[in-house]
């Protein structure tokens, strides 16, 4: 547990697996984030293991599976998780090319996500709002989830401790991620805690100096 407001808490764990793109496969550790109260929650990203996620969910009702983007190390088990918890998968539609790389089979059949996220889309869980911020760059449909009442933002691979996410692979753009961070994330208060897709937390204030240029 790493934060609470009005009965809403954030549960966190780390899940290990692989990330594949552009013909390379890397071993990666992904953060798991579950936000909710004692009765309901949302899951942010669905990396490597349904069981790792369900261990954080417990007996609670899952209202949504929120994807920060569709890279396989963030979305691979989303359809399998949906089967278990019967909750909609929400993704920004600009990530369809990346989603299809992981979830479309050779015959063109495959899983789809359920709800299109857009900038400003709000998800209510346990009386707390998570607001989607469309932050393209690492991926075209990359989204951050800002929880004002919790004083935090879930940034996926858009912002890490130490700077922006990687933009060296297909479907990424360095200028676009810098603009996204400047316009959407640096608009948040300095004390906002940044919960990342990989590695340690940071804050908007701690990252601001290195990003302002
Ligand atoms: Fe990624």
Q: What can you see in these coordinates?
A:
By secondary structure, the protein is an alpha/beta fold. It has a single domain (4-211), classed as 4-Layer Sandwich (Metallo-beta-lactamase, Chain A), CATH 3.60.15.10. It is built from 6 helices and 15 strands. It has helices at residues 50-57, 72-75, 78-85, 96-103, 174-185, 204-211, and strands at 4-5, 8-21, 24-36, 40-44, 61-66, 89-91, 115-116, 122-125, 128-134, 143-147, 152-156, 159-160, 163-164, 193-196, 202-203. It is globular. The model has no long low-confidence stretch (mean pLDDT 94). Bound molecules: fe (ii) ion. It comes from Nocardioides kribbensis. InterPro entries: MBL_Glyoxalase_II (IPR051453), Metallo-B-lactamas (IPR001279), RibonucZ/Hydroxyglut_hydro (IPR036866).
Brief rundown of the structure:
The protein is an alpha/beta fold and 213 residues long. The protein has helices at residues 50-57, 72-75, 78-85, 96-103, 174-185, 204-211; strands at residues 4-5, 8-21, 24-36, 40-44, 61-66, 89-91, 115-116, 122-125, 128-134, 143-147, 152-156, 159-160, 163-164, 193-196, 202-203.
């Amino acid at each position: 547990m790493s934060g609470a407001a009005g009965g809403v808490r954030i549960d966190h764990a780390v899940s290990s697996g692989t990330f594949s793109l552009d013909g390379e496969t890397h071993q990666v550790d992904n953060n798991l984030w579950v936000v909710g109260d004692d009765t309901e929650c949302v899951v942010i990203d669905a990396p490597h293991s349904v069981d790792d996620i369900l261990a954080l969910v417990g007996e609670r009702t899952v209202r949504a599976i929120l994807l920060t983007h569709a890279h396989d190390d963030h979305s691979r088990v989303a359809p399998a998780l949906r089967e278990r918890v019967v909750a909609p998968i929400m993704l920004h539609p600009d990530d369809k090319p990346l989603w299809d790389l992981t979830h479309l089979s050779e015959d063109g059949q495959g899983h789809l996500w359920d709800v299109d996220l857009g900038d400003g889309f709000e998800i209510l869980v346990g009386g707390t709002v998570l607001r989607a911020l469309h932050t393209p760059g690492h991926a075209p449909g990359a989204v951050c989830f800002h929880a004002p009442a919790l004083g935090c933002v879930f940034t996926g691979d858009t912002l890490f401790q130490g700077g922006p996410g990687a933009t060296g692979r297909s479907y990424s753009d360095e200028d676009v991620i810098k603009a996204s961070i400047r316009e959407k994330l640096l608009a948040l208060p300095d004390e906002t805690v940044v919960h990342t897709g990989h590695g340690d937390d940071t804050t908007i204030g701690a990252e601001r100096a290195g990003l302002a240029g």
